[in-house]
Amino acid sequence: MSFFGALDVSATALTAQRFRMDLISQNIANAQTTRTSEGGAYRRKLAVFKEITDFDSALSDALGSISTSGTSTPGYGVRVAEIATDTQGGTRVYDPGHPDADLDGYVVMPNVNIVEEMVDMISASRSYEAGVTVINSTKSMIARTMELGR
Q1: Does the predicted TM-score (pTM) go above 0.70?
Q2: What is the pLDDT of residues 39-65, one digit of tens each?
Q3: Into how many domains does the chain fold?
Q4: Which helix (H) or strand (E) holds 84?
Q5: How far from chain centre, in Å, is Cα 10?
């Protein structure tokens, strides 16, 4: 893999983790939302990642061939394949004065656990930092390689 291929992979990772952090922020913001446009309480959303590979890239790797075009081989990295909705039910809270309470006085709350979301946010943040570190290391290696040519 070329230097630019490493940058491509890291860039896709940064994009995916940023999207994951956006979803986590949305979950935290809607932790008390009991009414949505779809009906019912808000349901937690999760990012599902998928590896990016294309047939040409996989074949080149399998054969051990090197790209002679001077460009990085496309098709490596990660992307968000879908936004999954957590199917776990929310908790029922007794609050007869709430406008969304049922006839028995219970309100179905969202299935968002703030502690779990914060742990996921820290994980996404650390993954993002790791991607930035890879990009900085790659830039440093490119700069050192350029100095060798002088």
Answers
A1: yes
A2: 889 999 999 999 887 666 666 666 765
A3: 1
A4: strand 78-85
A5: 13
